[in-house]
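Supplementary Text 2. Reproducibility record for the structural model of the 310-residue chain.

All settings were left at their defaults, and a single model was retained for analysis rather than an ensemble. We include the record here because the model underlies the residue-level annotations in Supplementary Table 4.
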Amino acid sequence: MTLPGTRRAHEAARSIATAVLGYDAGPMAAVESGSHLVHAGRDVVVKIIDAGDHTRLDREIALASRLPAGLTAPLLGSGLGRLGSREIRYACYARMPGAAPGMGLPGVDGATARALAEEAVRRLGRLHGWIPPAAAGRTLRDPLGHGGFTGRADLLAGVERLTALGRPGAVPRRLLEGVRAMAEDAPAEARAAVPVHADCHWGNWLADGRSVTALLDFEWARLGEPADDWFFLIRFSGPHRETVLDVVARATGTAPDTLRAECEIREAAHLVSDLRVALEQPGAHEAMASGRLGELEELVIGRRWWRRAG
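Retained model, structure tokens:
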């Protein structure tokens, strides 16, 4: 994000919200976000991004009004504007009740984790069963470099790219060999079968008590396989990973070990993709490289998906 000025951004967000609502939006507060400027008021949430940064917000805007009713926050308005000398794109949403449970479900007890997971799985089931109208279908089919699992050959190519990019020892050989072994046993290709959110970790849900109220941020939505969503839901459940895996397995009639294997190969693909980006731009992504290497070791050596979360 290259947009200037916290105060300017706040003023722009309030101006956008007031224009869309048709009345004074009232006080608005900044919300933490890694890729947008986000401000929330009593009735509204405004997302702002430099219009030249990426097109994913366009994707979300194109899908928002066509998604199954009640799945996400209603889109109230969107468009282009100015913030200082920069052109911006914005999307204005109705504010839904509740708050994000957060990555790893911090402070959530076991019973609440199970209840939230059951509701999340039902909502994702509605998304996976949705037959998108023509315009939404075109948006979902638009190419998107999502970094997820697309097939055996692509994952093996990613491992080879990491090997070629890295200085000696940048990615330890045992980790590369471990991912290569996973890839050899992976499906030849992933199917573009159903609409998936593809980023549905617990930071992108809203919940009120034990009730899920909305799934947010459809910028990575595409056609894929249900496991593309089950991975995010399970992986980022912290100490409740086994509980959420059990909920998904029961709801979908999937054997737990099948689900583990599907999640493992998807995590491998995402980590390989992120490490490739980090090695191609070492100055900009040093912290990401270190973090992803630790996660890759936990995946390959620690066998994350084949032991109980502690």
